[in-house]
Amino acid sequence: MEARNRVGGQPDGKANTKGVKRVTKVNNRIKREIEEAIPKMRQGSVELSRHLINVREILTWSNATPIRSHTDIGYLCCYCSDYYPEPADLKQHTLENHEGINDSSFTKRRDLNAFYVKVDITGLRCRLCDAELDTIESLVSHLKDVHKKRLFTDIKNHLISFKFEDDTLKCFICLSKFSRFKGLLEHMNIHCRNFVCNMCDAGFVNRKRLVVHQEKHKTGIFQCEVCSEEFSTLPKKKLHIKSIHKPVKFRNKCGYCNETFKDYHQKLKHLTVVHQVEQHAYKCEACDRVYRTRKSFRVHIQRDHLLQRPHHCSECDKTFYSGSALKCHMLKHTGLREFQCDVCLKSYGRKSTLRDHMRIHADDRRFKCEHCGQAFVQKCSWRGHMRAKHGVEV
């Protein structure tokens, strides 16, 4: 009877009662943690529950912190409505005010196909032994092997890791640089290849992103329901609807003052001038030119330094970097003039040329001489005046 009344090798009595309470308390805590880790999940989603348990253990026993998203106003907290321009400030806020996964934004995602968590692993350390670690994978192995924590290693990793070690926004794996967090997030799919496209070998962190990507490979006739314009792929149709038919109030909206803009670059200028938001820039090491976006920087390198000219004219030996440049060049061979002035009926090969011509009828003299005040409709006329009258090359 005495052996049956012992808990943990202690004799019965007060020690026995204390031991039973301790075991019961531990069991209740484990039960409560599991219930909190799987809030309102679909019945039978065992794998999703394992993902959430893994995330809970990682955030509990390390200084890794989740990121909800990034907008004009900064990095958003996963647990509350606070936001911070710098990721380091969000990390400090999260470590001081939140823990685990309770009430976090990612626990509300009940679909495994769309589930993933963005985590800041800058200066990653184990809270149990203060060991320094490089990646989430090494942290999981460490917690499981050294500290015997309950983690599932037989499932795909749906965590996307980021390190913010200096002012440059870059991938900590391949060191690629980015001007926006959105670009870096898209890039991380290269390294998180849980699901791979069988058409182009592109990798993605979850199945939903793969499905969205695969729409690009489906060609056909996709008609706009609003204006009946047709497109060769579904993404092109969606982009058309978003940019043409979506109400302006929902397009390119400033996160600070809700002002809207016709295009993204106007919004960037507004953020810089009005709200003093510093924009990341790419500086060319060959010629010191600076570009605001990764795309414009890449175009500059390929066109101006690598001299890539993949588009060949079928009539002469000239080559061009872009298809649009080749199309403009072909007008010299075809003589096509499809843009006609409604006033004098002159025709032009380019829409931009017609637009410049229309300033003659509007008497739009925007090019003004700073020396004598004479104004001109066309830039070429202004340049000729500056050279002939004032001896200045412009």
Automatic annotation (TrEMBL):
GO molecular function, one term: zinc ion binding
Classification via InterPro entries: Znf_C2H2_sf, Znf_C2H2_type
UniProt keyword annotations, A-Z: Metal-binding, Repeat, Zinc, Zinc-finger
Gene3D superfamilies, sorted: Classic Zinc Finger (3.30.160.60)
SUPFAM superfamilies: beta-beta-alpha zinc fingers
Domain C2H2-type: 195-217, 222-250, 282-310, 311-338, 339-366, 367-394
PANTHER family: C2H2-TYPE DOMAIN-CONTAINING PROTEIN, KRAB AND ZINC FINGER DOMAIN-CONTAINING
Record-given protein name: C2H2-type domain-containing protein
Species annotation: Euphydryas editha (Edith's checkerspot)
